[in-house]
Amino acid sequence: MYKPLYPTLRHWNKDWLQPEVSAAIESGKLSSIACAKSPGVFIIKLFTEDFCAKLLQEVEAFQATGLPRVRPNAQNWHGVILNELGFQPLFAAVIDRLISPLAQETFPERFKSGLCAADHHAFVVEYAAGKDQSLDLHFDDSDITVNICLGKSFQGGGLSFFGQAGKADEDIHEVDVEFAGAAHGLMHLGSHKHLVKKLEGGSRVNLLLWCLDKDNPLLAAEIPFYDDLTEHLADRSNINDSWKSWDEVGVPCTFT
Ligand SMILES: O=C(O)CCC(=O)C(=O)O
Ligand SMILES: [Fe+2]
């Protein structure tokens, strides 16, 4: 049984945010908290170091139970889907109050009246020796991706950005971004192609928020985020039948 360490972490609280971010929300001008590294790639620092440390502890407490889990996405093998651990209310509020107006200011042509988030996928990915150590070039199943480092200590493992999926320059390299440590993050369009460079040492754990706008064709097609994980689930069935009840019951969980 998994018993959350910090049940209150799952709900919106300004204390989780950097003071500049709270102030920007109050003033209704969010662009000051996003710094363009190159067109369409923004450096952001949204959550406090304390929040990031607690979230990391929460993930590690869950992993220590040895309970079955679904891989976080079709490429990363190591990590956890946070909404399976009860984080849906927090990230829905974060997207609504923070990411949506920020997307409107940073990508005004794309999100004229903000990102109308109809769904999201919140997960943690983990890189270390013997685990994932890099990620091939891809685009995300999202309209906006927020990617925030939770720790720990690492060398390498930065991101390289290329062009927009479907455009003539989609595979042309644009810019490299390294994570400066816990709480440092990025925001970009899901269609902005990227890869993760090889981790050279240590362990990097990042929070990913894939936000889907209401007009995203994935929603119209009613393709759930987990659809392309079927193959992985089939693999798991050979070694452990417990995944079969996963979708119905979620994580056995007690909240206090
Ligand atoms: O590990 C990262 O920083 C990026 C992960 C990523 O691109 C993804 O999960 O889609
Ligand atoms: Fe990605």
From TrEMBL:
PROSITE patterns registered for this protein in UniProt: FE2OG_OXY (PS51471)
Pfam short name (any one): OGFOD2-like
Keyword entries, A-Z: Dioxygenase, Iron, Metal-binding, Oxidoreductase, Vitamin C
InterPro entries reported in the protein's UniProt record: Oxoglu/Fe-dep_dioxygenase_dom, Pro_4_hyd_alph
Keyword Oxidoreductase: yes
Keyword Endoplasmic reticulum: no
All copies of domain Fe2OG dioxygenase, residue ranges: 118-213
Known cofactor(s): L-ascorbate
GO MF annotation: an example: oxidoreductase activity, acting on paired donors, with incorporation or reduction of molecular oxygen
UniProt protein name: Fe2OG dioxygenase domain-containing protein
